[in-house]
Amino acid sequence: MREPGPKSGLPGAAPPRPIPLKDRASIVFVEKGQLDVIDGAFVLVDVSGVRTVIPVGGLAAIMLEPGTRASHAAVALAARAGTLLVWVGEGGVRLYSTGQPGGARSDKLLWQCRLALEPDARLKIVRRMFQVRFGETAPERRSVDQLRGIEGVRVRTIYQGLARQFGVAWKRRDYDPGNFDVSDVANRCLSAATSCLYGVTEAAVLAAGYAPAVGFLHTGKPLSFVYDIADLFKFETVVPEAFRIAGQHARGKLDKPVEMAVRHACRDAFRKSNILSRLIPAIEDVLMAGDLPRPEAPPDAVLPAFPDPSPSGEEGQRG
Questions:
Q1: Reported pTM
Q2: Which domain holds residue 45?
Q3: Statement to judge: residues 43 and 78 lie in one domain
Q4: Closest CA to 95 of 212, 216, 235, 240
Q5: What confidence tens digit (pLDDT) does each residue in 235-252 have?
């Protein structure tokens, strides 16, 4: 068993360039096996020793369910390929932790923080998010809190409409992050669906060079900016699929566990919506709405003694 070195395997060859996010498949769920690197390939080895090769460089994120262990070599290869590893609960209904495949660029991170700390710029970004999400200009002379309230009313209305459309008994969005199993089927479907969306969205945020924690509408959470961007796509991708699966379950027409059905539906929705090609442009679009220039380095800043080479993949990926 060998861990691949920094080269591609050919003498004098440069490391392969990571595949751009827009050209990757969205997500793969793995469970009950050991992730490792064998003969240079990223593989899942089950208890009987059967190897399943996973094309790590062609995926935006790999969701690791219970019963999965990852070797150092596997995590290192995923990082070099720019593929996000996400540790989730069974069926993807819990989101525990992630392994960062790259790192925020200082210029973009400083710009993101400046936009978040300047009230006028932040309001402009929240208004742009509202426009992208609902297809109309946000009401004038409204604060961020007021826009959040208007958004909440619209979201509840959308949930109710989808519940009626798919024949789902619906009261409200209600779940316990510490115990997802106590939720009803519709809420469990929504939790599984949004976990899938958060995985690919975080991969895009990191690939673009920004910080997942520095949000604008959402604040105070490690994934605040991920929630901001995911909300732009939530109701055209995963939420309708969650209610559709919940409706099939209510009619007894589902031949697989609801969490599995939701994951498969989300995978197909991501492909149909071409979401991976749209996420990074959407991030740049909403941040540009803040109408603030990117900060320049102070004139007395100490430059690196040995400048790093330009990234070989997305702007936020290392190497």
A1: 0.82
A2: 21-99
A3: yes
A4: 212
A5: 999 999 999 999 999 999
